[in-house]
Specification:
Length: about 400
Amino acid sequence: MTVNLETIRNAADLIRGKIVRTPCSYSRTLSDITGAEVFLKFENLQFTASFKERGALVKLLSLTKSEKEVGVITMSAGNHAQGVAYHAQRLGIPATIIMPRFTPNVKVEQTRVFGAEVILKGDNLDEAAIHAHGLMEARKLTFIHPYDDEKVISGQGTIALEILEDQPDLDVLVVPVGGGGLISGIAVAAKEMRSTIDIIGVETARFPSMLQAMRGLPIECGAATFAEGIAVKQPGKITLGLISKHVDDILLAEENDIEAAVLLLLEVEKTVVEGAAAVGLAALLKNRGRFAGKKVGLVLSGGNIDLLILSTIIQRGLARSGRLVRLGIEVPDRPGSLAEVTRILGASHANIVEVTHQRAFTRLCLKSVHLEVTVETRGLSHVQDIRAGLENAGFKANLVDADISNCNS
């Protein structure tokens, strides 16, 4: 079997009515921000909140009766696991999933909800794969590869059919890249349907394995990334060949930019995506000149993000934009000083979130106290007004900066 437009259209026929036909919608605000015409493909609206359902279902439907009875096994950082587990449960097929030990809990628990046996092994996808293959041989299970399988790739390619049906005149498709299954299927279908379209992949800068493989370079990756869904050290052999032939370029997204893109999608589109799904927007924002004036399709590949991580992103985003700040204030150590500070903050329409009062651990003189106040504001200009109000009343106020700007290295 080879992957082509026919196999992808056959895959679309197989899964029609069994997965969500997700919307591909124009974003006026993101278009204004980036200078491109931006269209979003909301694969985070699948039942398991990821595109992975498509390829998993195509592969499961291709199994023989005996293979279905014995069961399947796979390794996954989460989304492929849920796609396999959900549709295996629907089809009555036993499923075993090997997941890296540090997979976000939301993905682990959701996979278990779908009835799969979940085993946590290894620190990354490649180590999980070693255990999966050993268990496959011991139990005689059928292996469903997350990306390096022609049926899986054909299933993922059905996304391109839907995008180009909804938006046939797109100039560019920007697609997340991990092992390469998603972009391989999309690129094959899109290039056969519209040869002039550009296909741009995006990897996290900490795991640039596909770009390195395309350039014939040694694979060198970081230890961890917020975009764990595409943290793949070993690109697929099938996917590498298809990407080399059909993909025009691969860009890299930094951690801070991915984080900012997740927050922007939440604020602007009111949609929740995981780090891996936000790399396309991160690359678009970083390379605006390259995409300016073009009709750009972004694939939002999944929405399975841990709520604690999402909460942290929101807090850090508020801090970066000046909507949440910490003020260090020197106040006289006498009754009424704290009340006066809070009165001034209230008059400035700053909402107090937290107050700490420090006498011992400070270099201030004995008759002074260090007050640290966390406040919600309307932005940076409002912060300046608040500081001016405090200083006009005789209180020296400085911003207490959080070191959250250099997490890319």
